[in-house]
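Much of what follows relies on a compact textual record of a protein's fold. A record is reproduced here so that you can trace the correspondence yourselves:
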Amino acid sequence: MMEFLYFPEDKTEYIPGIISLVIFMIGAAITMYIFIKKSKKEEQLIDQQYKLNANNIDDADE
């Protein structure tokens, strides 16, 4: 038998690992939400700057 694999008979030993997994999954989801929210704000800012620059270029052409 492979000695390096350890599967405990007492399944309560899995609880700390499951708790850690859940905590990290929640943290990853929150981080992803923050990145998406920040990205949308930056996209709106760039769109506003592009429209402003496009209007200034059009005014200069006339």
